[in-house]
TrEMBL record, chain A:
Organism, as annotated: Kaistia dalseonensis
ABC transporter domain mapped to chain residues: 15-249
A Pfam family it matches: ABC_tran
Keyword S-adenosyl-L-methionine annotated: no
Protein name: ABC-type nitrate/sulfonate/bicarbonate transport system ATPase subunit
Keyword list, A-Z: ATP-binding, Nucleotide-binding, Transport
Protein family membership: Belongs to the ABC transporter superfamily.
InterPro entries noted in UniProt: AAA+_ATPase (IPR003593), ABC_transporter-like_ATP-bd (IPR003439), ABC_transporter_ATP-bind (IPR050166), P-loop_NTPase (IPR027417)
Automatic annotation (TrEMBL), chain B:
Family membership noted in the UniProt record: Belongs to the binding-protein-dependent transport system permease family.
Key words, A-Z: Cell membrane, Membrane, Transmembrane, Transmembrane helix, Transport
Record has Zinc as a keyword: no
CDD domains: TM_PBP2 (cd06261)
Species whose genome carries this gene: Kaistia dalseonensis
Chief location bin: membrane
Keyword Transmembrane found: yes
Name under which the protein is recorded: NitT/TauT family transport system permease protein
Subcellular location: Cell membrane
Cross-referenced InterPro entries: MetI-like (IPR000515), MetI-like_sf (IPR035906)
Classification via Pfam families: BPD_transp_1
Amino acid sequence: MLDKRAEGASGPAHLQLVNVWKRFGEGERQTVAVRNVDLAIQPGEFVTLIGPSGCGKSTLFNMIAGLLPPDPDGSVVFKGQPQQDGALLGKIAFMPQRDLLFPWRTVLDNATLALEVEGMSKKAARQKAEALFPEFGLKGFEKHYPQQLSGGMRQRVALMRTFLFERDLILLDEPFGALDALTRSMMQRWLLDIWAKHKRTVLFITHDIDEAIFLGDKVVVMTARPGTIKCEETITLPRPRDASVVTTQEFMAIKRKLLAIVEEESMKTFAAAGAA
Amino acid sequence: MASRLSFLRSALPVAAALIGLLLLWQLGAMLFDVPTYILPRPGAIVATAIEKAGLLGSGLWITSVEAVLGFFVGTLIGLAAAVLMILAPPLEVALIPLVIVINSVPSIAFVPLVLIWFGLGIGSKVAIGALAVSFVVLLNALAGLKRPEADAINLMRSFGASRLGILWRLQLPAAMPSIVTGLRVGLARSTIAVIVAEMMGAYAGIGQIIYQSTAQVDYLTVWAAVFVASLGSLVLYGVLVAIDRKLVWWR
């Protein structure tokens, strides 16, 4: 049976997780990575997910991407259809934590990777990608190799590769985690622009509370391991958001609230590590 | 233009060292009056090489054809086996111990058997060359194909890539540097194996010239053949460097 949240005001959820569990190992050695996760994401929504490190965010992500099967207790429902046995592979645009650009491909050919896998001809794929270069701030770098680019540029290439794989749902796993603070805030504003223009549904993992609030329509907080959803906070800050939004009273109030929750969970992780 | 300049810059010291060595050798041999059968003078060796250019040239040609053919056959077998093992891991588990056992015996040890199986002609030389190459290429290719991390493979899977798609677009390019290393070692090995096989039994080739001239106590021809063989492998090495640049352009 589907959760009540699935039938919200805006119709069926784009993606819904119903009682999703993931356990690794057997018997005494068994560890629970993710437990009892219920989550619904509406079409066009930008959802950010935060939680202490090692809370099972990436495991959850891999299950949503279809890379890892969830335990049989629950299900992942995509556009109203329950998904099994890697059925989600190829349906969701997934961007892992590291850029994973291929050093033997030029920037242009890295961007077209997913299109080529889908069977598009090299020429058509390149034409399609070339049109996006100015928007992604990479014009003039088409023929460069990834190892010639800065971290921020590499991340934009990886994002372009993800966007070119035209799926309605995009999963981003801490895409800006390795960038310096300045580049990061620039990339956040830029991502919002792109999102507003292309209107995709986004699920974005981060461990940075500011980032989560700044980007999201909804912030989902996960508990310490075994990870489950602690609470969801709807962010009503007006869009389009610019850098100054982070100093407003509203922003601060949300941040204080979320910070308290995340701190509590981080302390648990810390205590558990100390006890072990 | 720039590449020609850098080639000259790297080739010049090598050529200078080589010429210096030959001069030293020539002067030393003249000064101490070393007899020809122990160490002939480079001048005499070069003169013999020119005098017997026809014989040596045809020998070098046959040896090169055998070595290159053996190299290609062995490379194909090695690459095909590596790809099969990646696609069917049980195959790897079953066969790799066997491969390591055979590979730890110098391939030259198989020459007598190969001569019995394939005769004294080109066939046996190509077979021994292929044997010398295939295992190195197989082991290097296998290590290279396994190099991409799980994350990169998962990325390809998330795009809906098939097993073969992942092999073609990710694993094979990622394996190139290590395959090229295998090719380099393999080519050297196949040349050695072919020449030794020719010495043990052949109708023609550099190895056979060395063998016959030794039997005839014609040491100048032996040395001339060795000189010509070195020149030949130098050319092959140059070809390999070019292949390396072509296949691993991103380094």
